[in-house]
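Here's what a typical entry looks like (ParA family protein):
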Amino acid sequence: MSAKSELRVLAVANQKGGVGKTTTAINLGTALAACGERVLLIDADPQGNCSTGLGIGRLQRKKTLYDVLMGEAPIVEAAVQTSLPGLDVIPADADLSGVELELGQTARRSYRLRDALEPLRANGPYTYVLIDCPPSLNVLTVNAMTAADAVFVPLQCEFFALEGLTQLIRTIERVRGSLNPRLEIQGVVLTMYDRRNSLSEQVAKDVRDHFGDKVYDAVIPRNVRVSEAPSFGKPVLLYDLKCAGSQAYLRLAREVISREKDRQAQAA
């Protein structure tokens, strides 16, 4: 993409936990940056796993998403550079868990993140913003979906996967109906795929039958190197570039970029 490409804001979301959501946010963001994009990752989960997985220690989190949502810092001041050029992160910490209570019934409380991102849409340095959502429906998830152009859905290849996806689609429809009429599903990526397991194949077939070309061709395999990388504070591409997981995320990033170019060409 050229430097003049419009900013694309994606909420990485699934209301079911343990589907590889944070892992996908970290590694897709890293792979996009490795492909030449300028990426801002927003850690919207009070656990701060996205920040930790990128090697951003607690002492480096001078400003966090909490400060941004509470109006205490502009988003550019909260951005922390990661070890990979082209990839920045807005970190999170436990303070974020208090946002719902502190905002209460404040006016435009669901639009806090969207308002904060407006300067980046006008003249920011990024081509992608990825928001790592918590695995529940709360004010943080609603803020992410209100700010996003689309929802990027990691989906684990297991029996209850489609059940969680049904809940997510209901949430997207509610947000679209009341807060963000342009919100759509960007795509679904199958994660933790095990070729030796017939259940993985059946889930993949069911998802592709239901969502058609919204499902990415790239599939993220179950891979021990992907699981190990966060404990070293690294995305898997920096931990082991040649492993199957890294190569899968690079394929996914290239597919995301290609589809985005097609979308922009059709919109022009």
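The chain has a mean pLDDT of 90.

More examples are in the samples folder.
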